[in-house]
Amino acid sequence: MIILPADMDALIRSEGERAYPYECCGLILGPLPGPSGGGPGDVRRAARLVPLENAREGEKRRRRFHIDPLDFLRAEREAVSAGLEILGVYHSHPDHPARPSDHDLRQALPFYSYVIVAVEKGRARELTSWRLSADRATFGEEGVEIPG
Amino acid sequence: MAANLLVPTALRGFTDRQAEIALEGGTVGALLQALVARYPDIGPHLFDEQGGLRGFVNVFVGEANIKGTGGLDTPVGDGATVMVVPAIAGGAPGQAAPR
Ligand SMILES: [Zn+2]
Questions:
Q1: Does residue A75 sit at the B interface (CB-CB below 8 Å)?
Q2: What total of structural domains would you count in chain B?
């Protein structure tokens, strides 16, 4: 499960609407969950979002996103200096449901929470979160708790 | 020649949660081979069946992506910091751009 404070839920939604009809993307930072460093069922709390430019070019941004590795490296340093870790990634699905695509699955890494917000005709709708299974075969949906 | 390799959170499950690992090796390739020798389970996440780096794996020596500096043959100076950086990508269903 991922705990997403209400202002971060709102920011992901507004980023998705702002980027429409293109995909938005960014990183989710927070403390490492649990003394063991997290596992499949851990509860993690988002503490900071790092909105990033979608590094895909032109019209490809309608259906794809890519985070520049140098942006990732800088976010990792920002996280470490704040005593945080990169816990996940968010992106939007313009005019598609908030379900991971085959493309998302192929590109996914273990451990991270993949938060997806559906943006329908410019309005943010459902927001979901997913994690890659250990065998890389599927995504499992995890709960999203928005305290408030 | 020893360098420090920084491992992203996503791959620390394969390195006993170590974030920073001192390794011997004069090139990026040698350094990564030393990493895999110590933590074999990380191998399939870094390399494909042909021994090349996977598409979603980037390696930086300092601020330089090795894609622009000779790939796995990129030399690593003594005390250098080498960082494995995952390429984060994905998207919605369908073709990259509508026809
Ligand atoms: Zn997607």
A1: no
A2: 1
